Amino acid sequence: MKFQEKIKAVKLRKMGFSYSRIIKEVKVSKASISLWLRDIELTSKQKKKLLKGREKSRYAGAKAKQTQRIKITEEIIIAGKKEFTLLVKKPLFLSGLLLYWAEGDKNRSERVKFTNSDETMIILMMRWFREICNTPEEKFRISVHVHNLHRNLNAKDYWAKITNVSKKQFYKIYVKQSTLQQRRNILYNGTCGITVHNKNLFRKIVGWRLGLLDYFKILPVVQRTERRTSNP
Fold first, then answer.
1. Phi/psi zone of residue 182: left (φ > 0), alpha (ψ -120 to 50 degrees), beta?
2. For residues 132 and 114, what is the distance between their CA atoms, to the nearest angstrom?
3. Which stretches of the chain are assigned E, i.e. beta strand?
4. What are residue 144's DSSP bridge partners?
5. In this predicted structure, what is the pLDDT of residue 213?
6. What is the rounded CA–CA span in Å between residue 60 and residue 51?
7. How far is CA 38 from its chain centroid?
8. Which of 92, 107, 122, 112 is nearest to 191 (CA)?
9. How confident is the model over 47-97, as pLDDT tens digits?
């Protein structure tokens, strides 16, 4: 046993130092520190001080992660915006981007999702995700929403064939209930949602959309308002 190190560690702990700080001073493993100091009781004042220090450390760590995330997000969006001019002449790229802009998710959770009941639109968007976005097959998740009046028991099979995605990657079918009794169009297959859990792809799509606005010289509403305000 490292007797001198233990004495120093005990002394520092009784002064109210945290384990991480003691490890830096004594240069021994965390396991040794935990064993040596497990029976030492701290005063309520020392505990409050340690708790406050941990809170500051957690806040600093969270802030650093947030700053890094913002930086990465901005870099991907800028890269996507520049990439637009290289892809704009591809019909599949432009048509898919416009469809996603109209029907795709644009929420703050940065989830990539496109939902529609038109099978041809779903087929086109699956090509867009595969050929333009280079989405790996295992990243696809498919959701199917049907109305209980139109419920088709083969809806999952139908959309699995349309999307060419394994039924293992389908969520449980969501059935919307109704107080109406008359059943209509039992062959209706509901709506299909294509989800890709990839925040970087979401950010790239944002960049592509900004590139499109630049390409056609379209200013967002906020910028148009600011321009009119600054030029009365």
1. beta
2. 15
3. 112-116, 140-147, 174-176, 191-196
4. 192
5. 94
6. 14
7. 40
8. 122
9. 777 777 676 676 567 777 878 888 999 999 999 999 999 999 999 999 999
Q: How far apart are CA 108 and CA 199, in angstroms?
A: 10
Please report the pLDDT score of residue 40 as a whole number.
Answer: 80
Query: Kind of pairing, strands 140-147 and 191-196?
Result: antiparallel
Q: Which amino acid is at 110?
A: E
Q: How far apart are CA 116 and CA 190, in angstroms?
A: 9
170: nearest Cα among 207, 145, 206: 145
Distance CA 93, CA 224 (A): 27
| Amino acid symbol at 24 | K
Lowest mean pLDDT among 36-40, 69-73, 125-129, 165-169: 36-40
Please check whether residue 161 is in contact with residue 168, taking contact to mean a CB–CB distance below 8 angstroms: no
pTM of the model: 0.69
- Residue 208: C-alpha distances to residues 41, 87, 93, 99, 164 (Å): 58, 9, 10, 13, 26
Question: Could you tell me the pLDDT band of residue 230, with boundaries at 50, 70 and 90?
Answer: very low
Residue (of 170, 158, 83, 80) closest to 123 by Cα position: 158
